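This follows on from our talk about sequence and fold. Can you supply me with one protein entry, sequence and fold together? Could you add the entry underneath, on a fresh line?
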Amino acid sequence: MVVDMRLSTVILPIHRWSEGQKLWQRAEDLGFHSAYTYDHLAWRTFRDGPWFGAVPTLTAAAAATQRLRLGTLVTSPNFRHPVTLAKDLITLDDVSRGRITLGIGAGGNGFDATTLRRSDEEAWTPRERADHFDEFVPLLDQLLREPSVTYEGRFYAANEARNIPGCVQRPRLPFAVAATGPRGMKLAARYGQAWVTTGDPKLYEAGTPEQSVEAMRGQLTKLGAACESSGRNVAELDKILLTGFTPDRPLQSFDAFVDFAGTHFALGFTEMVIHWPVPDSDFAADEKIFERIATEGLSQLGR
């Protein structure tokens, strides 16, 4: 059984702060390792309801908590620029006193991909998203490490971009790189302090839990190969599983979570992330079961 097991949560940015503040503080009280939020302009079935910005939400959460790590799952180049994002992240890291993790991925083809486009513009193809991501991550890494950066690339530019005083966390705040393809895996191996997956999306509705486990075993093997090619020990990276997108239903009961978590930690994951319950949604769950999982779930895995 894996010794280093962490349990974290995702709090969707759907709550006015008068209510949202209580959830982030409760996440800290329950003992979660980290609390993340989505960084989208809108998302799926939540598009026509309240949806607040990730950076202001995390800033408020940093001021309302003391120990809880905070972060995005995930930020993408779909509507972010490395220069402005770096400035926001340095500020967040300062306000939180070094508790920020940047979850970052290539993005998808949802609302983030089209909201800033003119009606005659096509959203980026998967290849174009990967191309942008390939340039985005190294430039952001440089911006967060160096006080002044000048860069001209295919998609992005920085002209004497100043980032003083830099991150509280040195040499910069950690990246958790979401990736399943070879190019993303290479970025995770080179720049990531962690790797993130949601499993194989093709199996979510039509697959079985056993197929999902095998798919993630394959992803972990590919991550190991990418790390080996980069001259890096794969053990240096945390492996984060964002749950809720596999055929399993780990929040259905306490025992279901213990079985699910035991299987996936044994695969090699080091951090499990569960969604804070949202009634009448794909993330609906019994709050009592959720809180019991938060406080007792990991302690059952060694038994």
